[in-house]
Amino acid sequence: MDINWSEMNKEMQALLSKEATFRDGVGKLLELRGNLFEQVAQIVHTFPEEAFYQMPFAGADGYHSKTLAYSIWHIFRIEDIVAHEMIAEDRQVLFARDFDKSICSPIITTGNELSGDEIATFSKQLDVKELYRYAQEVKTSSDQMLKQLTYADLKCRFGEEMIAKLQNTGSVSENENANWLIPYWCEKDIRGLIKMPFSRHWIMHIEAMRRIKNRLCKTARKGVDPVAYCGLSCNHCFLAEWCGSCRTIYNTCSFATVSPDGICPNVKCCKGKGIDGCYECDSLESCEKGFYIPSNDGANAAKAQSLYIRKHGKKEFLKVHDRLHQKYDFSKTQEILGQDCREGLRILEEN
User: Fold this and answer.
1) Quick count: other Cβ atoms within 10 Å of Cβ 340?
2) Do 327 and 194 share a structural domain?
């Protein structure tokens, strides 16, 4: 489990356990959910459509054996059912907002009954943008519900009537791989449900999504030019594990993830000019686009690398990076090259 998420989860549970700190616990839970959902948002906004039905770990044991689309569906179907059928006792978001139609899902269940190729086939049918909207709506409605809970509510339990109600919704398959969910939920009080569907369940599946996307990115980078448009070396970038490079459709670099269309401004500019990278541009030194925005403390280090490529070529650039990483312990180039592009170029040329 991610260390930061694990620590937040532990802190949240400890705070919820006491009436005096209950409200702080809810706040910590909402913070955790916000951090986790940001991961989902980045994947949806930057990954290509084909990524959502790929199964790079097909046949493996664990949540990472699924797809990105399945994971999103599964997380939020379970939360929707538990939050609205059990706790709020109102209508599920899936039906209340007509997502059962717009997502184009062939099922309304949690998906536990699906396996192997069934998961890939199911995932390929989903409208990912609508699925994301559904996830947003479920999170928002659950967050509101969590804010309204009282400490006394945590002890609320569920009986046979709730089991029958959930069975009648058809939201959980009668398949043996799924039907255990209903008694599992109903044996818990609300405190127990918060610990699983509303927090730990998210962590487990979103961590699995990160493993899936990292593998997709690693596969995409094979045989691809490791020098990014802005002049950074993907082979030496601290984000290399989870980014497929801006020269592939799996570009999830820092500036791609914050761009409205998921495309880094440096990439868009270079493609528009028909050049291989910023190092071929006459406006490099004065450029303030994308990675070169003045507020980015790595802007001048990136420019220094582009200037080096312009003078010495990519092959020598990658060699000097290898030497720098052997000589120094660093993750970000600005830690070595500094904040002045000319000084950074000098350092590169001296190594």
Assistant:
1) 14
2) no
Q: Are residues 111 and 163 in the same domain?
A: yes
- Dihedral pair phi/psi, residue 223, rounded to 5°: 80, 5
Q: Which band of pLDDT confidence, cut at 50, 70 and 90, is reported for residue 253?
A: confident
Residue 288's contacts (CB-CB under 8 Å, 6 or more residues apart) are: 294, 299
Residue-level pLDDT at 90: 96
Confidence (pTM): 0.88
Look at the chain and report how many structural domains it folds into.
2
Are 188 and 211 in the same domain?
yes
Nearest to 110 by CA among 159, 140, 71: 71
Instruction: Please say whether the beta carbons of 110 and 173 come within 8 A.
Output: yes
Write out the residue range of the structural domain in which residue 317 sits.
223-350
Residues 27 and 140 grouped into a single domain: yes
Does residue 42 sit in the same domain as residue 120?
yes
Distance of CA 90 to the CA centre of its chain: 30
The four Cα atoms 218, 242, 261, 270 give a dihedral, to 10 degrees, of -60
> 333: which residues sit within 8 A by CB, 6+ positions away?
232, 236, 298, 301, 302, 305, 344
Question: 222-231: per-residue pLDDT in tens?
Answer: 999 999 999 9
